Hints:
The structure is a homodimer.
Chain A: H1 15-22, E1 29-30, H2 43-61, H3 71-85, E2 94-97, H4 99-111, E3 117-122, H5 126-132, E4 138-145, E5 148-149, H6 151-160, E6 164-169, H7 183-196, E7 200-203, E8 228-233, E9 245-248, H8 251-265, H9 270-282, H10 285-310, E10 316-317, E11 325-329, H11 336-345, E12 348-349, E13 351-352, E14 365-369, H12 375-392
Parallel strand pairs in A: 1-12, 3-4, 3-6, 6-7, 7-8
Antiparallel strand pairs in A: 2-9, 4-5, 8-9, 10-11, 11-14, 13-14
Helix pairs in contact in A: 2-9, 3-9, 4-5, 4-8, 6-7, 10-12
Amino acid sequence: MVNFSDRMDYLKASAIRELLALTRKPEIISFAGGLPAPDLFPIEDIKKATAAVLEENGKTALQYGETDGYAPLRKHIADRMFKRNQISTGPENLLLTAGSQQGLDFIGKLFLNEGDVVVMESPSYLGAINALTPYLPKFVEVPTDKDGLVMEELEHILQTTDRVKLIYVIPDFQNPSGRTWPMERRKKFMEIVTKYEIPVIEDNPYGDLRFNGEFLPALKTMDTKGLVMYMGTFSKILAPGMRVGWVCANDAVIAKLNLIAQAAVLQTSTFAAAVISKYLDMFDIDEHVSRIVPAYKHSCDLMISTMDECFPEEAVFTRPDGGLFTWVELPDYIDTKVMASQAMEKRVAYVPGEGFFPNGGNNHCMRLNYSKEPDDRIVEGIRILADVIKSNLR
Amino acid sequence: MVNFSDRMDYLKASAIRELLALTRKPEIISFAGGLPAPDLFPIEDIKKATAAVLEENGKTALQYGETDGYAPLRKHIADRMFKRNQISTGPENLLLTAGSQQGLDFIGKLFLNEGDVVVMESPSYLGAINALTPYLPKFVEVPTDKDGLVMEELEHILQTTDRVKLIYVIPDFQNPSGRTWPMERRKKFMEIVTKYEIPVIEDNPYGDLRFNGEFLPALKTMDTKGLVMYMGTFSKILAPGMRVGWVCANDAVIAKLNLIAQAAVLQTSTFAAAVISKYLDMFDIDEHVSRIVPAYKHSCDLMISTMDECFPEEAVFTRPDGGLFTWVELPDYIDTKVMASQAMEKRVAYVPGEGFFPNGGNNHCMRLNYSKEPDDRIVEGIRILADVIKSNLR
């Protein structure tokens, strides 16, 4: 048998996806995934929406559709982006994708030649690193602090680095760090990228899940040159099993992304898109979101207060204002990959931090998710984890 | 704004997908798509299956799942591949994809470095050419006759061509030609590829749609070296709007395809897969297929007999034993792209042949689909097309 392509030498298994299989065992207390709480899925409403779609519109919902995706859903998304995010866009600037993950793959395919540079927060979303890796870019990491990406460092990198093709950022409740950029950083960021004219991926899967502090505008609202490709998804506000997300971008980029979607997959599921669209016709998704958010705030508060109580002072962690994750930094000498096996033996799973750094290293960090487990298991799991950490302290 | 990647210079709009938007107008008689007849969708049964999934299993169906896809559906597919195609496989050798189109993208990503060679039937499926093009292969076309790929030509190409990484074929009711390989060609093909050890994509979206002649075994059943990657889909036997297909391949290939799927899209829709799986629990899909097949036979017979009646003798066309398409060859001097505009003015759409040849040329061919239009419009459309063809004869 002939060899695989060169890009396969660089593609690694996602630590998160590999863990997902393990953590399906009910005895495992999993802080590993980014799974929304299944108890919060609006199952009955989705059932009604599906029945209505198939009754009223079954032939369309089950048939092939246009590449850019089911038009009524794109209209809903454009309306909601304006209402929630103050982003003015039309359905024609949207492409539906199979979750925002697919948007990352398509954007990588669109922009990256081998050796081009992608600039990312350090740490950044492991799935974005994986999605872009097959296009063989060089990743340059921008240092971050508690307020997210450090803008002086970004500017320095753009000044001194050739072939920067993309900047990938998550300004709201970042995965994995749980950090959110304040307003002045957003402005500064857009000033810099507008000056250097570098295309930006603004990934915003968690923006609706704010439980503390004030709403902050998307980078896309300050985008005077059409540089920002904004990605949203129904995964965290409705149901990830639908696999429906979207990219919002300028005309030229959307046209090219359409070509890529055509070639790669023809289109996103008409069925899933039609069901979501009908759900949005029949029900108030913002009311649904307003039921999720307090539940996640409760879980987050519980996890953080338990960490305050049990974790040793050597463990430094984020206190998120929204989203699904907190991020823990331990002393340098602790390898969280080694420690993960110890924790798993005690039935607790988390994601070691290393995978969130495209150039590796930083073995002393870990990501914890608080959205999936019930209260008693959050407390139990954090206590177990605290003991495991303590047993690794020198 | 920086430039797009080099691969974008080669990616063209799919003639089929571009036409799909146009042919949605109800006044257009479309022989252009490969759309299954929407009247044959089992809408009521899918409604029942969806309700049952959401009642019994809603939390799982709406949640993230494993990368390789919803396990109960993979089990169903493995069972049915054995029953219908005599292919022995387990669920662990299957990867669910968003239609078989996505399988093509993933396989291209897995195997192809720039400049590698993909061998294809001439003509071949336009969507496969588009899916593989972003990986910048060189396409080598194997001549075909009325029984499909000419095996001597294939052997000659494999003998004389370096860097052949993949062979892509559709032995059953090929898209676009409507031709089917007889048994001896299948055996000969497997003899040749087994000798040269070249990975094969066997794309079989139409295999179940046989309305004349005897069932013929898949290449995969004669695959002693694990070279064949077999692709199937629910698009043509159930509903394309679901976007659920699959790849069946050896352990090493499936493991790598899983990595690619993880990175590109995380997974296929749990929701769509769970609905299809439940449909297969509750209903007999083969009974459903046995209702589709006579309808397509009827439409095919009607189209072919109308062509026999009205088309000039200069038009040579396939008499398919199944599938969705017939293929028409006109005199060399007729450009079917130019003629397509003339036909469209008279409200008839088809796909010009050129797009089915990866290296272009062959402007005198066209693909006609018979599965979508009702009887009166098939007759009317073919009569119009006959007149258009005649007006182009010298």
